[in-house]
Each structure stands twice: as C-alpha cells, then as structure tokens.
Amino acid sequence: TAYFGTAILVGIFTLPWIALLLKNTPQEKNLLPYGAQAATITKETNSEQTEKLSLKDSVASPAFWATLLFAGLIVYVSNYVTYLSAHGTSIGLSTISSGLLVSVAMIGEMIGALALGSLVDRIGIYKTIRLADICIIWAFAVLMIARQNFWLLFPAAVIGLATAMYSTLVPIFAEYVFGAKNYEMMYSYVVTGMMLINAIGLFCIGW
C-alpha cells in the first residue's frame, strides 16, 4: 500500500509538469535538434582531428581518463541515493520521513533529466556540468548540517540530479570529447569503467 501510494504521489506531482515540458519536435520550442548547431560550428575545426584520432590513441589520451573520472564521480555520488533512507534514520527521522527522501530524490532525477537536456541545448555542456556540480556540492553541504525533514527534501531532490547526470550528461560529454567517429566504442569503455567504480562506490559509501 505504501509503495502504491508513493507511486500515485509521484505521478500527481510529476506527470502534469512533464506533459507541459514535452514537445514533439525541438522546433516547437524554437530550438534545433541537439548537436545541429555544434556540428555546424565545430565541423571545420574538429574534422581533421576526429578523422586522425584512432581508438588506441583515444584510450591512451588524457581526455579519455578525464572523461572516465568525470563519469566515475557522477556515478559515485548517485550511489548516495540508495543510502538516503539510512541517512535519515541515522539522524533521528522516522522510517516514513526517511523513505520520503528517496522518493523526492527520484522525482528530482525525473525532472533533472529534462532540465539538464534543455540546459545543454541552451548554454552548452560545460556550463551545464559546472552548474550541476555547484548544486550537488550545495546539496551535500545541507545534508551534513540539516536535521529536519523539510530542509532535507531540497538536497535530496538535487542529489537525484546526480543520477540524471549519469544517464544524460555522460553520453553527451563523451560524444563531445571523442566525436561521432569513436563515440560508440569509447563510450562503451567509459561505461565499463563506470560500472566498476559503481560497485566500489556502493561498498565504500555503505562502509
């Protein structure tokens, strides 16, 4: 019954907003499809480098390890959603209030995925990453000092944003760094590394 009630609340609070935000085509929001403008601007400057870059060179490049580090940090932070309920009970919240933190984080993930995609189209991938990082740092700072359920709801929603970054920003960033030619193979390497970091991160946070 509790899960069913939570599902109804999530639907009531999120579906109307999603229905307002979703459009059939980017043109309905006066936007180009993602990558159209970037491809036009960077085609001449990056075409030679993209064609010459081999998979071997990509794996050995600092860009690959920087991308893996970025993705690993995101998936590590997103693991904390699993322990939000335990964090709530550890500071004296009831089981219901602690479970609510996880539900709010999931809502933050849903809304965050839409917001991040829109921000990337408007301000670019790097500015979006910086803005999301600032929000996540703020969220963890509030979690460390807040002890009332109301004030914990806001950082919980923002931590859900980290999970949205994992599924939204990482593939976009990988394509931006490596280009369309090597994107599929390089992203598969990044995802493999992320799964390893994810496994270690769950153990470390739980410990």
Distance between the termini: 32 Å
Order of H and E elements = HHHHHHHH
Note the total helix count: 8
Category from helices, strands and their pairing: mainly alpha
Strand content: under 5%
Helix proportion of residues, in percent? over 70%
CA radius of gyration is 19 Å
Uncertain stretches of 5 or more adjacent residues:
38-50
Q: Give the tally of β-strands.
A: 0
Shape: globular
The major β-sheet equals: none
Mean residue pLDDT: 75
Summarize it:
The protein has 8 helices and no strands. It is mostly helical.
Could you walk me through the main structural features you see in this protein, from its secondary elements to its overall organization?
By secondary structure, this protein is mainly α. It is built from eight helices and no strands. It has helices at residues 2-21, 36-52, 55-60, 62-78, 84-90, 95-123, 125-145, 149-206.
List the helices and strands and how they pair.
Elements: H1 2-21, H2 36-52, H3 55-60, H4 62-78, H5 84-90, H6 95-123, H7 125-145, H8 149-206
